[in-house]
């Protein structure tokens, strides 16, 4: 008699809903939505999408990014969520949990289109992932890395209760990032209960759309 198959690991949330946002795993047709969000934002998103020649990023590049993000998500590696308006389906940005932070840790990333800035969306979508990382993934630490001139990202980290650890010199976290200094912020599991993210109401759904506890 064959041995029983091991129990499957709990499925990470494929979709999350807050009071104003839908966060979900990216689908193929999100490449067009992503291109529109980036192109309409101009220099506002240069920290994420700057090209050496200054030209807009072609659709094929967005397609490749969505494919890579989806593959990584399905393999329980890095998890990137598209962030959308519930009523219109308009893409507002992306937020992600990256495993390059080390054992027992996740790095939080986020970007928001220009015309959605200043409305609290970045804090809300980042809070949803902070809550997920500590309550679902049970991490010990979360990191946020951003360029010194990216004051908006740094402000979100501080609002979420992250502590400024220091300035890391001469870093490049990804091929499409410019090399330079980075600001490092961290949040520990013991600190999480005292953060705004702990109080955020989030509905989570699995791969099949079933509610998660």
TrEMBL record:
Pfam family, one: Acetyltransf_3
Gene Ontology CC annotations of this record: cytoplasm
Alphabetically ordered keywords of this record: Transferase
Protein's recorded name: Protein N-acetyltransferase, RimJ/RimL family
Organism: Stigmatella erecta
N-acetyltransferase domain location: 21-183
GO molecular function, one term: protein N-terminal-serine acetyltransferase activity
InterPro entries: Acyl_CoA_acyltransferase (IPR016181), GNAT_dom (IPR000182), Ribosomal_N-acetyltransferase (IPR051908)
SUPFAM superfamilies in the record: Acyl-CoA N-acyltransferases (Nat)
